[in-house]
Amino acid sequence: MLWRLQVNCMRYCSFVHSHHNADDADFFSELRDTNPALNPVIDRLQADHRRVADDLEAVETAANRLTDHDGREARQAVVAALQALRENLLAHLEFEELNLEVTVRRVRELA
User: Fold this and answer.
1) Which long-range contacts (CB under 8 A, 24 or more apart) does 67-71 make?
2) How many Cβ atoms are within 10 Å of 30's Cβ, its own excluded?
3) Closest CA to 100 of 16, 18, 50, 39
């Protein structure tokens, strides 16, 4: 069970890191060009990406510590890290969806 948590956690964390890096490197510049009024929104999304990256690192660290210390404290650290990630990631996704949907549709139409 512990091994599955670590493997799945690392896979998920890696996916989110990759997705956010792609957004930051390519997608956001395209959105800025398409709709410059989104610049404050994109600035916030990039700040969210940094916060979520910190949360992902905390989850990874806590999951890795379970190997050496499988006690109550180590498990609580994983739960706390996952809860922080959930809170920040869901808020980020909601903000992103509410603020980018119209422009993303416009970008798709232009492609």
Assistant:
1) 67/2, 67/6, 70/2
2) 14
3) 39
* Amino acid occupying residue 101: E
Give the whole-angstrom CA distance, residue 14 versus residue 34: 29
Going residue by residue through the chain, which has 111 residues, state the pLDDT in tens, using 9 for 90 and above: 677 777 788 888 899 999 999 999 998 998 898 889 999 999 999 999 999 999 999 998 988 888 777 788 988 999 999 999 999 999 999 999 999 888 877 777 766
Residue with tokens 């896979």: 11
CA 4 – CA 31 distance, rounded (Å) = 37
- b/e map 42-73, b = 16+ CB within 10 Å: beebeebbeebeebbebbbebbebbeeeeeee
Write down the pTM of the prediction: 0.84
Coil, helix or strand at residue 67: coil
